[in-house]
Specification:
By secondary structure, the chain is of the alpha/beta class. It contains 14 helices and 15 strands.
């Protein structure tokens, strides 16, 4: 068995780490005690570009007898902070060298930084800038992944990120959506990329409520000034979910598994098919929704005609209110103010008494609501909102709306309909 040197003492310089790396043919491997370390690279795809834009470097440790060792167990064997820093620097050196030895094109290299090293690495001497310079990798080609949830001290975390950001690297928050992750840190740390943990897509597949929330979560990340990357994509259904949620980047076994060698082909044929399938699915869902809502839109339009002709809203909307799942009807003026009480179904079975404090619409203004604004832009045409949570009754619904001219001026007739089963 190859004799490996003992771990160096501080400072942990490049020259001290070099003896722990040896050639294994076309691949370099690291050595630490009786463990050999190998670099695997998993592609990260841009859905819009339909190609690889980066690779996450992953360490694969093996014991002397050839058995694999989980990466977390590798760092769990470190007996001191100094040894943790040594292992982290050894892994990063190994990954960078293996990446630089292969044709990698204009792609990013994603490097995980151990949480302890994130905070304490600066006490062990300069390292990373020299590593990049030695191998001719520009800092802007590197994405530093931080497990922010494992770092409690906000100031130390911000200081560490500033160091890499000032160097020119990109910053990614890893495993967002687990543990103590929260948007408060996203606002303050302003990462370039937020990596959503695979549990997010698993929950979205299993839970319709989580599935409806995912596009909003991605939208919040975008509004915070970050790209969204969804990890752990293992099935076509999960890939379609990511595409439908407007995720920027994806990573997972469905697209590619980690491997020693970087793939020669950078395009992924499945992505174009996913776009076509999603377009077909959206078209079918739109048509199915139109068919399901047809009885509602028909009676809703009839009610608008009768109200425009001067009939009292209550009898004009009676047939519509008799349909199942209709929650309420109401009229708004040209400024979006509600001008009448909610018109409710005869039996009022869909109203939840727990939300009674929200039931009184006196002085309510709905002028900022999308269903009102769309109706004002296109008078005389029925608008159907996306599903949302009604503040009036606390239930998920869609709103039908139409702008009409009455003897009292412009009015927008609205009807809230509880989500219909497909």
């Amino acid at each position: 068995m190859q004799q490996t040197p003992a771990a160096p003492t501080i400072p942990l310089t490049l020259d001290q780490i070099d003896p722990f790396i040896s050639s294994d043919g076309s691949h370099l491997r690291g050595h630490c005690h009786d463990i050999s370390l190998h670099s695997h690279f998993q592609p990260i795809y841009s859905l819009a570009h339909q190609r690889i834009v980066g690779f996450e470097a992953l360490v694969r440790p093996y014991l002397a007898d050839g058995r694999p060792l989980p990466p977390l167990d590798l760092f769990g064997r470190a007996s001191s902070l100094e040894e943790t820093v040594f292992l982290d620097r050894l892994c990063r050196t190994l990954h960078l060298q293996n990446f630089a030895r292969q044709p990698n094109g204009a792609t990013w290299l994603f490097l995980n930084l151990n949480p302890l090293v994130t905070v304490h690495g600066k006490h062990y001497g300069p390292f990373f800038r020299q590593l990049l310079e030695r191998h001719g990798i520009a800092p802007q080609r590197v994405v530093i992944e931080i497990l922010e949830g494992q770092i409690g001290d906000e100031n130390q975390l911000a200081e560490a990120l500033t160091y890499y950001r000032d160097m020119g690297c990109l910053i990614a928050i890893d495993d967002f959506g687990t543990g103590h992750s929260n948007f408060d840190r996203i606002w303050r740390l302003a990462p370039h990329i937020v990596k959503l943990d695979k549990s997010v897509v698993e929950q979205a597949i299993a839970n319709p409520h989580a599935r409806r929330v995912l596009p909003g979560l991605v939208s919040l990340i975008h509004q915070a000034g970050s790209f969204a990357l969804l990890e752990g994509i293992e099935t076509e259904a999960q890939a379609m979910l990511a595409l439908g949620a407007d995720v920027d980047f994806v990573q997972g076994y469905f697209f590619a598994r980690p491997a020693l060698q970087l793939p020669a082909a950078r395009q992924h044929p499945a992505i174009a098919r996913l776009f076509a399938d999603l377009q077909d699915r959206d078209r079918l869902e739109t048509e199915a929704s139109r068919i399901r809502l047809a009885p509602y839109t028909g009676l809703f339009f009839e009610a608008s005609i009768r109200i425009r002709a001067g009939e009292d809203p209550q009898p004009a909307a009676a047939a519509l209110l008799a349909l199942p799942s209709v929650l309420r009807c109401y009229l708004l003026d040209a400024e979006g103010r509600q001008v009448n009480n909610n018109l409710l179904p005869p039996l009022d079975e869909n109203q939840d008494p727990r939300f009674e404090p929200l039931g009184d619409p006196s002085n309510a203004i709905w002028g900022r609501r999308h269903y009102y604004q769309r109706a004002i832009r296109e008078p005389g045409r029925i608008q159907v909102s996306k599903p949302y949570l009604s503040i009036t009754g606390g239930s998920l619904c869609v709103t039908l709306s139409i702008a009409i001219s009455t003897t009292e001026g412009l009015r927008v007739l609205c009807a809230d309909v509880g989500l219909l089963d497909s």
